[in-house]
Design a protein that fits this description.
two-stranded parallel sheet, 3 helices
Length: 84
């Protein structure tokens, strides 16, 4: 079910990511936080979509891609070791 919701939100996510990169004038570094991301298989779906969109936007605008820092956060009892 989470995967279906993410796929429906994908166009908005891509549009907002592209707009943010342009509005920030293609920064040298950017931080992305997924608060409440869980620790299962879907954890990286949103993050990877954002990172891919940033890299594609930089290619389109002939800009150097930024250093990207991805932060994941959820309940203390979630095991991120299994995610990685």
């Amino acid at each position: 079910m989470q995967k279906r919701v993410l796929s429906k939100a994908k166009p908005v996510l891509i549009k907002n990511t592209k707009e943010r990169m342009i509005n920030l004038n293609f920064p040298q570094s950017i931080k992305i936080a997924d608060l409440g991301c869980a620790s299962g298989q879907n954890t990286f779906l949103t993050m990877s979509e954002i990172v891919n969109t940033i890299n594609l936007s930089c290619q389109q605008w002939n800009q150097k891609p930024p250093e990207i820092d991805c932060c994941l956060n959820d309940l203390p009892n979630n095991d991120f070791n299994t995610t990685f």
